[in-house]
Amino acid sequence: MPHMKTTAERPGFVTSTIPRIAAWPSASALFFFALLWLEVIRHLRTEWSLNPQYGYGWSVPFLVLYLFWKRWPVRPSPEPTNSRGALIALSCLLAFLFLPIRVIVEANPDWRLLSWALALLAVALSICFVFLVGGRPWLRHFAFPILFFLVAVPWPTQLEQAVVQNLMRAVATVNVSMLNIVGVPALQHGNVIEISSGLIGIEEACSGVRSLQATLMISLFLGELYSFTISRRFLLVVVGALLAFFCNLVRTALLVWIGVNHGINAIEAWHDPAGLTILLVCLFGLWLCSLIMQRNSAADVLPSSPDKIDSVMDKVPRAILAALAAWILLAEIATQIWYGAHRPPAIVAERWSVQWPTSRTDYKDLPVTAEAQNLLRYNEGGGGRWRESPDHSWNMFFFRWLPGRTAALFVKNHRPDICLPAAGLTMRDDKGISLITVKNIRLPIHAYRFDAQGEPLHVFYCYWDGRSSYGNAAAAQEEDWTATGRLRAAWKGRRDVGTQMLELAVWGYENDNEANAALLQQLEKIISPG
């Protein structure tokens, strides 16, 4: 009887079966990292969509993939590492941290600290994986594309406000000096320029230098694209920052010149075109600088690796990759179960709305600028102005955000103590937060006193979160965005259920007690339960 060869003995079947089996680690790794990075992108997408300063974030994941694709053909040969067990243990520990971070994120989608924690977790896991697969040569080779994703993560709020507000104040100072030199009278009030026809730059006092973050991203990308040395990359970043400052200086000067010659109302028609033109000039100028620097540099030529991805991926245990992918899915399921079990919240604050005093004969609507609407992205709101007496006038703004609109972030960045000093007012006193009961509704009111060109201005600011009880003054002090308050919300399973912001400003009261009494009278007329 003739001998029949089995499938394993046939050479053709052997060569076709091995790649199919070896492809499993690659598929497992791709599945795990796709789940991980898609979760990071899902978390950041709201910031990228709603905050114009970080709108460029949508392009960063594609740029990261391009940088990987560019470096892959010239990857170095992998080297074995003696820390294989430690890297696997570290990866498992980092993956475990994904669950608590994911639970806290669900209650605090606007907390930038969590944005960095989630992004750094994905970066650290990716670096551990690259180190495990290819050793130090691969770590050095692929570190930059992985770390490059961090340029899409929003800056910490305090750092962002310090940089943006200082740069805007510097831009305003230079423009005022130039106007005075050419004989145009101008005064500076914070980030606002006052000329004979009115004030310029009130909106910009809150929005800041939007092209700065985008310029930083482009600087780093061009440095990698042209394989610059570290010193040249640093120089390109510095050049990009100077270009962003100079272009915003030119933009502000152009808008001021239009305001001086054609009136304040003419600025609105030129605001967005000027901003887009200056941004394009800044980016093309940066690209031109990188081309000049490229002519004087010799890019390093990296050797190509003969190793195939299938043979390299065999170094990673398949069980570990499968377990990590399952853990990401399990963390998402556990998060939904946790918040589902706590729905509805045990304590929910009494809901309320406002009644605009439109029946008053002296009432006037205060329009919200298109730029402020694009920045705040509220679902409902507006502004109004009326006069209570010849010496006392009131301004009111009210905004409501539906769940998932990251209201805390917007309101936190645009509180009176941030925006009004930028608009030229001087804060004299911060009275802190106190609970005021109006029609059985407890409202956390933060009181400020400002000096508006010699006239006293009292500002009363209320940030209200529907998931908070505001049962005492301590709860009101949290304002739901302190670390303790945010962690407590996650522990109690309280999702974002919508927020509201009410701001009242009154001129003419020298005495704080009189201003507080007038506030109570206004709240009784304005606040409506339900």
Topology:
Layout: H1 11-50, H2 60-71, H3 84-107, H4 112-148, H5 157-181, E1 187-189, E2 192-195, E3 198-200, H6 204-207, H7 211-225, H8 230-262, H9 267-295, H10 309-313, H11 318-341, E4 352-354, E5 364-366, H12 370-376, E6 380-389, E7 392-401, H13 407-413, H14 416-422, E8 426-438, E9 441-452, E10 455-465, H15 473-478, H16 483-491, E11 499-507, H17 512-526, E12 527-529
Helix pairs in contact: 1-4, 1-11, 2-4, 3-4, 3-11, 3-16, 5-8, 7-8, 7-9, 8-9
Verbal overview:
The protein is α+β, with helices and mostly antiparallel strands and 530 residues long. It is 56% helix and 16% strand. The strands form 3 sheets. The protein has a 7-stranded antiparallel β-sheet, with helices on both faces. A 3-stranded antiparallel β-sheet has the order 1-2-3, with helices on one face. It has a two-stranded antiparallel sheet with strand order 4-12. Helix 3 crosses helix 16. The radius of gyration is 29 Å and the shape is flat. The N and C termini lie far apart (91 Å).
